[in-house]
Hints:
Elements: H1 8-19, H2 22-26, H3 32-51, H4 63-88, H5 101-110, H6 127-132, H7 165-175, H8 199-202, H9 206-269
Helix pairs in contact: 3-4, 4-5
Amino acid sequence: xxxxxxxxxxxNMLLHFLxxxxxxxxxxxxxxxxxxxxxxxxxxxxxxxxxxxxxGSGAIKTPDKxxxxxxxxxxxxxxxxxxxxxNRFTPGCNANIQLTExxxxxxxxxxxxxxxxxxxGVPETSAITNSMAPSQSTGPxxxxxxxxxxxxxxxxxxxxxxxxxAEIEMSLQDGVGADPDAGMGPNEVSSAPAAxxxxxxxxxxxxxxxxxxxxxEEERIRIEKQKLLEKKRCNNIRLKMEKDRLEIERQxxxxxxxxxxxxxxxxxxx
Length: 270
C-alpha cells in the first residue's frame, strides 16, 4: 500500500542523490537514450528511498510519484525565493522569511544565478556573460533564475538605417562567391563547413553515432530481456497456483468418494 507522506530523512536522501546528478535534478533530458537513463536512475532512487521508509514513518511511492514530489519541492522553493526577493524591495515590509539549508541547496542546484535572491557564498554572474547567453524559458518559474533585464549589456540601434536599391544590389553582387568568414572577428566562429573536407568529417563523427546507436540498442534489448524474465516468472507463479488448486480439488474429490462409499456401506448394513 502506498504511503504518501515522505519523512525528512527521505527528503534529505532525495536531495543528496539529485545533487550528484544535476541533469536529472533539472529534468531537462531529451532523446531516447536520455529518457532510458532517467528512468533507470529514478528506479534506483525509488528503491533506496522506499527501503528507508522505516516502520510506517516514511513514504512508499512509485518512481513517478517520487518525481512529482521533487517537482513540487522545486516549485515551492522557487515561489518562496521569489516572495523573499519581493519583500526585500517592498518598502515597509518586515516579513522575516528565510530559506532553509535544504531549500538553499535546491535553489543553487536548479538556478544558474542565485545571487539575485541574496544567497551568501554564491558568485554573481557577470552582466556580459548573461547578455551573450540567450535564455530559453521552459516554464513559469524559470524567470526566477535569470538576471534582471536592466543588467543586460546588449545595445540595440535606435535609428533605422536606410539603404538605396543600388547599394543593396551592389552588396548582393559583391557577396556572391565571397568568403563566408570574411568580416568576422577573431572570436567568432563560422557555421559554414570547411572546404575540402569530406561530408562525414564536417559533422559528428560517424563512429561515435554508430557507438551510441549500438549502446542504445543493447540497452533496449536488456530491458526487453528483463520484461520477458519478469513475465516468465509471473507465468510460473500462476502455473504453480493452478497446479496447487487442481491438487486440492483432486484430494477433495477423493474424500467425497470415500465419504459416499462409507455412507452406502452403512445403508446396506441396516
